[in-house]
Design goal:
The chain contains 11 helices and 14 strands. The longest helix is centred in the N-terminal third of the chain and has 17 residues, at 70-86. It is an alpha/beta fold. The chain has a single domain, classed as Spore Coat Polysaccharide Biosynthesis Protein SpsA, Chain A, CATH 3.90.550. The radius of gyration is 19 Å and the shape is globular. Strand 12 and strand 13 form a beta hairpin. The strands form 5 sheets. A 5-stranded mixed sheet has the order 3-2-1-4-9, with helices on both faces. Strands 5-14-11 form a 3-stranded mixed sheet. Helix 1 (13-23) packs across helix 2 (40-48), helix 3 (70-86) packs across helix 6 (193-205) and helix 4 runs parallel beside helix 11. It has helices at 13-23, 40-48, 70-86, 105-115, 147-150, 193-205, 207-213, 223-229, 260-265, 280-293, 298-307; strands spanning 3-9, 30-34, 56-58, 91-96, 99-101, 119-120, 152-156, 159-163, 190-192, 237-238, 243-245, 247-248, 251-252, 270-272.
């Protein structure tokens, strides 16, 4: 069972190179989108010194991918489409440059083989309870508030303008696609190749979706959920993004040594977000991965029971 990675990064070349080296250890391809504001040369130089140098493909199209802006969705769609064109894989994982794996490649491959056609992505319709390892924060578990999908959002440099507002109260609101149930979730996912291809084909076939999501706030947390969650593949989606993330209000917190026991105890495949200035946690995670490579399949059994139990 093969996997490909789409990684979105904007800083810390050495950290991204270390991530690529770990992910590509068994020959899996990685497609790296670098924010257009970043200088690509330090990333290329850092990756050139790793095992991943022949397996890392820079995204052909680069976007200024600020948080909450449509460019993040553009970057994801364009890089995913490139991966589908250039690589053979059963599943594709969307990761941040500050993420890190928690299991060895063989365990990940075994888990995805058992997953079959299933994909992994949070999908909330605003009425469900958040998972036990999350809180009711609508950044990634929707409260049902419609403003993020019915107000018009414009990126002005590093700031966002939302319409209507108290100065322009009469601006007409967005009309969500009538045939798509509103669904929101985490930006990060692991999709089957079939689901990834369906998402890309849907956006190509329906340019109106791109126009709609261009004005949604944080469209990367809605687009894949709404397209795939309303498709014939909806029953293949497992409601989990497979990430260990420690949240505080709207923001993912930087992980530290103190998080290691919780990370180890979790049945997750990736952790986010690691401090680029402190390699200590990544060193500890490498030790954890090595231990799990020698555990006789115990972690694979645990992942299967946690995520794939019917």
């Amino acid at each position: 069972m093969s996997v490909a990675y789409v990684v979105l990064a904007h800083q810390a070349p050495e950290q991204v190179a270390r991530l690529a080296d770990r992910l590509c250890a068994e020959g899996d391809p990685l497609f790296l989108h670098l924010d257009r504001r970043a200088d690509a040369d330090p990333f290329v130089e850092a990756i050139a010194g790793t095992r991943a140098r022949e397996l890392t493909h820079l995204a052909r199209r680069r976007f200024r991918s600020r948080w909450g802006a449509f460019a993040l969705l553009d970057a994801t769609l364009a890089t995913l489409e490139q991966a589908l064109q250039e690589a053979s894989f059963s599943h594709v994982c969307l990761l941040s440059g500050d993420s890190y794996p928690l299991v060895p490649p063989a365990t990940l491959a075994g888990f995805l083989e058992r997953a079959g056609e299933r994909s992994f992505m949070f999908c909330s319709d605003g009425s469900d309870e958040p998972p036990p390892d999350r809180s009711a924060n609508e950044r990634w578990h929707w409260s049902g508030d419609l403003r993020r999908v019915t107000y018009r959002h414009y990126q002005l440099g590093d700031r966002q303008l939302h319409l209507p507002n108290r100065f322009l109260p009469r601006v007409p609101r967005l009309a969500p696609p009538a045939d798509l149930r509103l669904l929101q979730g985490s930006q990060w996912w692991t999709l089957s190749r079939r689901a990834a291809r369906l998402a890309i084909e849907t956006f190509v076939r329906r340019p109106s979706l791109r126009r709609y999501f261009r004005r949604v706030q944080a469209p990367d947390e809605w687009a894949f959920q709404m397209v795939l969650g309303n498709s014939a593949l909806s029953d293949t989606i497992v409601d989990d993004d497979l990430h260990f993330i420690r949240w505080r209000e709207w923001h993912a917190q930087t992980l530290t040594w103190t998080d290691l026991p919780r990370i180890t105890a979790s049945a997750k495949l990736f952790a986010r977000k690691l401090d680029p200035q402190d390699a200590g946690l990544a060193d500890a995670l490498d030790e954890l991965i090595a231990e799990r490579a020698d555990d006789g399949g115990a972690m694979l059994t645990r992942l299967t029971e946690h995520h794939l139990a019917v």
